[in-house]
Specification:
Fructose-1,6-Bisphosphatase, Chain A, domain 1, alpha+beta, binds 7-O-phosphono-alpha-L-galacto-hept-2-ulopyranose, 2 domains, eight-stranded mixed β-sheet
């Protein structure tokens, strides 16, 4: 699956990030998202692959592009067997978030990125558009911290694993009313909290790299992005666990259905019998081969944002592969069509 795909998906996230970055700071989150979706889809459809969106912009009815079930790539065409080689005809599943952190882009804040994960068919958990309680931590704490334990207990374990005090830990939490008690508990335990307004994929990813001053992600974010985070963490050996949140009373955003019972039924119809199951990274991204790619839209902990100059732009991306066991930071200068002059930077 991998060979050239690993290189092509860099361009997919780069194009989405560049398109979205043009709307940075304009206060229009829907446009920042829409142009990213369009650019990602356009570049994806030029790849020799047979892809299917398993996590995308929503159900077909409310998302015209990159909707769940949409087929993408040249090898989904009818004459595919003539234009594609047998390797390229193998079906692959794709999870996308062309603009993770739309508010961050709209308000010119740090931490947004274009992101996707790929695996062979069935290799990514097709999460419903519910919420997910998440716990991310560095590889050294994997299988030691556990989302079933209290935040206080986990912070003690994390501090032990990292050979430091709890006071020396920084935990990222999304700034939401639902996290009031969690934030209180983390602070009472002695750790420091970095509140973010959006963008928990970037936060999860940061846990896997030392030097980022992010040691854990705790709290409730969106479930689909949880799968994308898990894909990266699975490749990097980092800790990631997720538990679906199906009770609308827990999040109070009005975004996950009318009732807890209705949501449990919906999960059952998707084949999820135990709604409280704790998913490990390896279950959310269970494929033999997993690829992950992200490109910074606005500056982040791991990557720069898109920087425009006359005649072009510069981007920074991260591509992670379970097969080649690499995490590759890619710094790209993009030259646009017919500038008056070209001043690379
Ligand atoms: C967003 C977004 C996150 O979760 O907040 C969303 O910024 C859901 O939370 O990065 P709200 O509905 O409370 O905003 C993420 O998309 C990803 O988990």
């Amino acid at each position: 699956m991998e060979s050239t795909l690993g290189l092509e998906i860099i361009e997919v996230v780069e194009q989405a990030a560049i398109a979205s970055a043009r709307w940075m700071g304009k206060g229009e989150k829907n446009t920042a998202d829409h142009v990213a979706v369009e650019a990602m889809r356009e570049r994806m459809n030029k790849i020799h692959m047979r892809g299917r969106i398993v996590i995308g912009e929503g159900e077909r009815d409310d998302a015209p592009m990159l909707y769940i079930g949409e087929e993408v790539g040249i090898c989904t065409q009818e004459d595919a067997s003539q234009v594609c080689n047998p390797d390229e005809l193998v079906e692959i599943d794709i999870a996308v978030d062309p603009c993770e952190g739309t508010n961050l882009v709209a308000y010119g804040q740090n931490g947004s990125m274009a992101v996707l994960a790929i695996s062979e068919k069935g290799g990514l958990f097709a999460a419903p558009d519910f919420y997910m309680k998440k716990l991310a931590a560095p590889a050294v704490a994997k299988n030691h911290v556990d989302i079933r334990k209290s935040p206080t207990e986990n912070l003690k374990i994390l501090a032990d694993c990292m050979d430091r005090t709890v006071e020396e830990l920084v935990v990222v939490v999304m700034d939401r009313p639902r996290h009031k008690e969690l934030i209180q508990e983390i602070r009472a335990a002695g750790a420091r909290v970095r509140l973010i307004s959006d963008g928990d994929v970037s936060a999860a990813l940061s846990c896997a790299f030392s030097g980022t001053s992010v040691h854990a992600l705790m709290g409730i974010g969106a479930a689909p992005e949880g799968v994308i985070s898990a894909a990266a963490m699975r490749c990097l050996g980092g800790h990631f666990q997720g538990q679906l949140i199906y009770d609308p009373d827990v999040v109070k955003t009005g975004l996950i259905g009318e009732s807890k019972e209705g949501n449990i039924d919906r999960l059952k119809s998707m084949g999820i019998e135990d709604p409280d199951k704790v998913y490990e990274a390896e279950e959310l991204a269970s494929g033999e081969t997993v690829l992950f790619a992200a490109c910074g839209i606005t500056p982040g902990t791991l990557m720069e944002g898109v920087r425009f100059f006359h005649g072009g732009a510069r981007t920074q991306s991260l591509v992670i592969s379970s097969q080649s066991k690499t995490a590759r930071f890619v710094d790209t200068v993009h030259m646009f069509d017919e500038p008056k002059y070209l001043q690379l930077r």
